[in-house]
Amino acid sequence: MKTLQTWYIYSPVTGINKIKKIKLSKDEIGENVLHEIEGRVLEESSTSLDQIENLIIQSHSISDNKKVTFAPFHKIKQLCLLCNWENLGSNLIGGLEILEALYILNNNYLTSIEIGFFKNQKSLKKLVINNTKLLLQPAMLKGAPNLKELDLRRNQLECVPLELFTDVPDMEKLVLAHNNITNLPDKIFYDLPFLKEVDLSYNHFQEWNEEAFSYVNSLLHLNINNNNLGQLAPSSFRKLNSLVSLHLDNNNLENLEKESFAGLRRLNHLSINNNKLKTVDASSFNNLKFLKFLLLENNEISCIAQKLFNNLGKVEVCHLEKNNISVLERNSFIGFSHLTTLHLNNMNLERFEADWCIGLHSLTELNLNDNKLTQLPSNAFHAIPKLAKLHLHGNLIESIDTRAFDNIYRLKYLDLSNNQLKQSPGNEIDNLYTVESLNLSKNHILTLDKNSLAAFRGVIDLNLSRNNIEIIHPDAFMANEKLRNLNLSYNFIKTIVSWVYSVNLADLNLSFNQLSNIEDVLVNFTNLKSIEIEGNYIKKIDLDSIIASSILFMKFDEDNFKTEDVIEIKKILEKKQSA
């Protein structure tokens, strides 16, 4: 639940006698605040001016700043200027001595803030200036020595003057995102010993100037996403020895050199998604002993260098999807002793070498979706004993070796949908009894034989939709005593035979088959609560069988039924739901 604050809106045109009010959350006080105001009905305010704490000044005139007076407002803590003023004069907010947050938003005319504008603003902690044409100048922030957060995004800034931050030594967070900055001066942050977070995303940096961050020993989070960085020199971030997260997504990096990240001994999160990485030196990550999240998705990596992950024993999540790795070679992941989640989807992966997964003994989730695997060989995952979720959707798998899942005894979720399987994984596989959710949809399965699903004795949710199933053996589900949710939609099933006696379903989807009646289903499934039967040839259902059944919800083709039958079926179901 968002906490709402009462804000008061003051227009210089209508004057202080016609102030209105609105409720806004903290998230709504930002770039889109104008939209939030214009889209709502504003209330008249009867609050005394000297009690107002949150004030919005809204003006479309360039010269209205001469009409504004803050004299009646003694308790303003948050001020938002939605004005088209060309400059902010030095005396404009002089009387607001307990101001804590100032928002200057969506002013396409603003080019300057006079020196002295922030005079005596010792309580100011947060300053947001967005969507202006402001030219920054040294000493502009003088008078706000306790400023903690400065947000200067979307101001068309091309440079940051060297002495801009001299007068705000307590600043902890700086946002310069969505500007046109190409470089930062050496030691630009020298006067900011407590700086913890810097956002430089969406600018035009082509090279990284490590000297800009000299003496910034407290920085924890650095975002350089969406720039034009082409390379990182060795030790590019060596001065940032406290850094915890580094974001380099959407740049033009083609390779990672040896010791690119030297000095980042506390780094926890490294993201280099959506670059042009082709090669990663085997020593690139050697110094990242505390890294937990490594994100390298959507690059052009074609192979994993031997020993690349040797020193990444604390990494828990690794994303390598959308690269171009066709073969997982032996010992590729040695070093990932604490890895729990590995994404290798969308990589054009064709095969595994033996022992490719050595080192992944802590892995619980493996995503291999949307690759080009045609088979699962013997011992495919033998070194991943804790594997609980396995995603294999969208491959070309035709066959699964009976020993493919050897040494896996904790698998709960298995997705084999959208492959080329003509039958379910064989009953010779002993250790898939732990699987609770099995997806075999969008394959080429024609029949369900007596032992088709015997390997999955513990399955609860089973999806067999969009196959070519015509025949289901009476004992097809005999081994699946725990089965509760079964999806057989989009097949070619014509009749429901005695297999209904062997399962205790709660949810059954038979949509888009070739059924003409379902009375046997309604009578024999004593715990069935929901059934879907649209897209069949069913035109009538015995009403007494619905009453006698446990069904509470039914989706059916109402157009195929008589109007009076539809009404009666709905009445019966509504009565049962409310009982």
What does it look like?
- Helix content is 6%, strand content 19%.
- The two termini are 33 Å apart.
- The strands form six sheets. It has a 25-stranded mixed sheet. It has a two-stranded parallel ribbon with strand order 6-8.
- The model has no long low-confidence stretch (mean pLDDT 93).
- It has helices spanning 33-38, 519-524, 543-548, 563-578; strands at 4-10, 20-25, 43-44, 54-59, 78-83, 87-88, 101-105, 112-113, 126-130, 149-151, 173-175, 197-199, 221-223, 245-247, 255-256, 269-271, 279-280, 293-295, 317-319, 327-328, 341-343, 351-352, 365-367, 375-376, 389-391, 399-400, 413-415, 437-439, 447-448, 461-463, 471-472, 485-487, 507-509, 530-532, 553-555.
Fill in the keyword field for this structure:
579 residues; mainly beta; 25-stranded mixed β-sheet; two-stranded parallel ribbon; 4 helices; 6% helix; 19% strand
**Biggest sheet character:** 25 strands, mixed
Name the assembly state: single chain
What's the average pLDDT?
A: 93
Spatial separation of the terminal alpha carbons: 33 Å
Radius of gyration: 32 Å
Beta content: 15-25%
Percent helix range: under 10%
Number of strands: 35
> Uncertain runs with pLDDT below 50, 5 residues or more?
none
Number of helices: 4
Q: Which of globular, elongated, flat, extended, rod-shaped describes the shape?
A: flat
Structural class: mainly beta
Quick recap:
The chain has 579 residues and is mainly β.
Describe the secondary-structure layout:
Blueprint: E1 4-10, E2 20-25, H1 33-38, E3 43-44, E4 54-59, E5 78-83, E6 87-88, E7 101-105, E8 112-113, E9 126-130, E10 149-151, E11 173-175, E12 197-199, E13 221-223, E14 245-247, E15 255-256, E16 269-271, E17 279-280, E18 293-295, E19 317-319, E20 327-328, E21 341-343, E22 351-352, E23 365-367, E24 375-376, E25 389-391, E26 399-400, E27 413-415, E28 437-439, E29 447-448, E30 461-463, E31 471-472, E32 485-487, E33 507-509, H2 519-524, E34 530-532, H3 543-548, E35 553-555, H4 563-578
Parallel strand pairs: 1-4, 4-5, 5-7, 6-8, 7-9, 9-10, 10-11, 11-12, 12-13, 13-14, 14-16, 15-17, 16-18, 18-19, 19-21, 20-22, 21-23, 23-25, 24-26, 25-27, 27-28, 28-30, 29-31, 30-32, 32-33, 33-34, 34-35
Antiparallel strand pairs: 1-2, 2-3
Organism: Pyrocoelia pectoralis
GO cellular component, one term: plasma membrane
Protein name: Leucine-rich repeat protein
